[in-house]
Amino acid sequence: MTKQTADNPNNQMVNSYTPFPARIDDILVETEDGNLKTFRIVLENQKDISKWNHVPGQFAMLSLAGRGEIPIGIASSPTEKGRILFTVNRAGVVTKALHQMETGSRIGVRGPLGNGFPVDSDLKGKNIVIIAGGFAFTTLRATLVYMLANRDNYGKITVIYGARTPGMLLYRDELKEWAGRNDLEVHVTIDSEAPGWDGLVGFVPTIAGEVAPSPENAAALICGPPIMIKFTMPPLEKIGWTDDQVYLSLENRMKCGLGVCGHCNVGPVYVCKDGPVFTREQVQRLPVEF
Amino acid sequence: MNEKFILRKDHLTGFLRKLSKGHRLVAPVRNRYGDLMFQVIDSLETTDLDLSEQAQESPKAFFLPQEEVLFSYEASGGIYDFRPINNSEQTVYFGLRSCDISAILYMDVIFLRSPRDDHYMKKRKDSILISIGCNTPGENCFCNATRTGPFLEYGFDLQFTDLGDRFFVESGRARGDEIFSEWPQFFHPVTEEDVRLQYQLALEAKAGFRRQIHVEPAFSKLRDDAVDTAVWREMASRCDGCGGCAYICPTCTCFTIFDRMESTETGKRIRAWDSCTHAGFTRMAGGHNPVDMKIDALRRRFMHKLYYDYSAFRRPSCVGCGRCVDMCFGGVDIVKFIDIVCAGTRKRTRDSRRILGDLLLEAGLISRTDLEKALSRQADTGEALGKILMDLGLVTCAEILGVLSLENM
Q1: What is the pTM assigned to this prediction?
Q2: ipTM score of complex
Q3: Could you give the number of structural domains in chain A?
């Protein structure tokens, strides 16, 4: 039922509300509160697998029989073939049910949807700063993994990632691995001192102010709670960063993911279809409700 | 296209019978409660069509049903399978009004821009749209202001005009021409007199609107962010969030999607009408709601219909059918909103404390000296200006009400 066409460069699924059948291949509890789990998903049908191609920053609808659908950012890079990762916070009806599922359970996946980060166009050849707070690191993980797999396409890459406590950091093993690389600068911070933590301590905006590189030929990708984004901007602006260099990923209530159902509509845009990735310059032009 | 013929009224039933062979026929019928509704006509022998006025509801539900099954699923053991469902039938729609056609054209934009909505597209491909122009606009109609009627230039397959004992029929699409050539026995050539009469009726219809709604000035006010917060607050306080305006609106297409379980293994995924005035329309899992207050939801609603859609499509998504006017018992309809916005901004140019005084001055009921006297007393006592003027014996209560109602017109 689905088809991809040439006039649909972002690999948006055309023409269907029907998900791809999929199964949960692996589940990893990410955080100490048990509220965040990463689900490794494998599509059931070979034709769906060969068709699946996403851009970091896109999302998909996860479907649970009898429960409904939810939009979740894709946490894996398209370079990680054969698996799709979703890191899901337990928050509502569907995510609660998903968290109770076991390896081997069947779900539906509809996507990829929306527009991702412009990794193969505007971001190419630039110095990249990735700034993430809490569990908003997911699609930025996808982006980082993609960039590391295509390392020559980007200049200096800096990652600033913060969480409340060491136990609330996502992708801990990978953070360690990334910290050991010499083609990547990683700054991981937690909000306040904790036993056994010998890394950075302080809020993301503070750390960003200390380590952020020059805005020259650079782009920043920021995902996190609104309050974090709000306070991260002034230190960046102080050293010359402008809104058109800053990419944000918005979230909103969504039902269709195709720009039709109206739930995620903000002024002239639909977050699902026109986003979820926007430059801060675009976001600033949206009406006040955001 | 643009072919014109005459269909005699006593041939209408025969024509519709032939045309709807192998199709479903949907047309306005008055039910036993007296409601005029679009209905599926099973038999033209036993059902009387009623073309006397605009139907109470638009035909929206035939293209976007209040509840529609997107697919059914089966989930048991190791499977979770989906079976798409086709909800469409070949249908002839007869007796649509210009506003109804315009609303369908709007829905086409929403559902058929990429990515296309296949459920809607199938229903549209399966439809023949036959409209009838409105010789006499209804009480709440204002399609003249939204430029969506009372007669249309395009959008219909066939457009009928009631010429008394006969219909003037014109085609707006190739499908309409096919109908002319397929059933030539029903269609007679038009005379010059028919053309003249049709033109005159369409002109008179334009002059027949009882309401004057300033849609384009309202757009300008919204664009310039010139709507006073007090207006939004007042409207929000009168809105009960019932969603009636969105349900009755022929261009409100927002929907929600949910699962309905039929057993532990089987169920259906359903889409159903939703409304932006419902609490929770924008609430996310975890409770955060970017459009939390009724006032924000209302602003979002009217901005969408009168500003953002206007900016995007050069026309508002309001088609001037006036149905929300009768629907909303709080008076939070689009007509009232436009009236208040346009009246309110006119007042805003003046010192607000002087509105009543200015009105009475303009009406010649008081002199400027009277007004200055009353205003200085108001500065001391803080009493309402109207009360002071009445206490001074300068005007009567009826005179005040008179100028205020003039102002609200």
Answers
A1: 0.84
A2: 0.88
A3: 2
